[in-house]
C-alpha cells in the first residue's frame, strides 16, 4: 500500500489537498454449499480484534492478476476449498472517499475440500461453515463487522433474486 497527498483544485476553484490510500485490487469469495457459507477468522491488527469474514486477498507484491484467477487462488490458500463453479457477482469500492482499492466478488459453489495453503501471516487463521441464519445473526450481533463481507452478502442476496 502507498499513501499519498495530491494537490487538487475543487469545483469552486479553490486549492486543496486530498489524501489517498492506494491498495491493489482484491478478490473476495463467498463459498456456498446449499444454505451454508464458509468463513475465515483472523486477527485484524488495526482494530486489535479477531474477525470473521469471507476469504479475500490481493496478489503478492502488488502484482496485476486477473480477478477470477485471484479468487481461485485466495479460496484455496485460505480455506483449502476448490470450486467446481466460480461466478462473478459484483464489484465493491472499499472506501472511495480515501482509497483507490476495488474488490471483485465471486460466488464459489460445487466445492471440494483440501488443505489450506496459507501465507505465513495467515497461520493463525481459523475457518468454519455457518448457515445463512447464523451469518445474519452474527452481523446483527456485531460478530461480523467486516464491511466488504456484509456488502458481498448483499450482492449474493441480489444475485439469488435474479
Structure description:
This protein is an alpha+beta fold and 162 residues long. The protein is built from 3 helices and 9 strands, in the order ββββββαβββαα. The chain has helices at residues 67-79, 132-140, 147-161, and strands spanning 2-9, 15-22, 26-33, 36-44, 49-53, 56-58, 82-93, 102-112, 126-131. The strands form 2 sheets. Strands 3, 4, 5, 6, 7, 8 and 9 form a 7-stranded mixed β-sheet that branches. The chain starts with a strand and ends with a helix. The model has no long low-confidence stretch (mean pLDDT 94).
Query: Helical proportion?
Result: 10-25%
Radius of gyration: 17 Å
* Helix-strand sequence: EEEEEEHEEEHH
Low-confidence stretches: none
Main sheet characteristics: 7 strands, mixed
The number of strands is: 9
For the residues shown, what is the average pLDDT? 94
Judging from the principal axes of the Cα atoms, what is the shape?
Answer: globular
SS field, number of helical segments: 3
Task: Specify the oligomeric state.
Answer: single chain
Portion of residues in beta strands equals 35-45%
- Alpha-carbon distance between the two ends: 36 Å
Structural class: alpha+beta
What's the gist of this structure?
With 162 residues, this protein is of the alpha+beta class. The chain has 3 helices and 9 strands, in the order ββββββαβββαα. The longest helix has 15 residues, at 147-161.
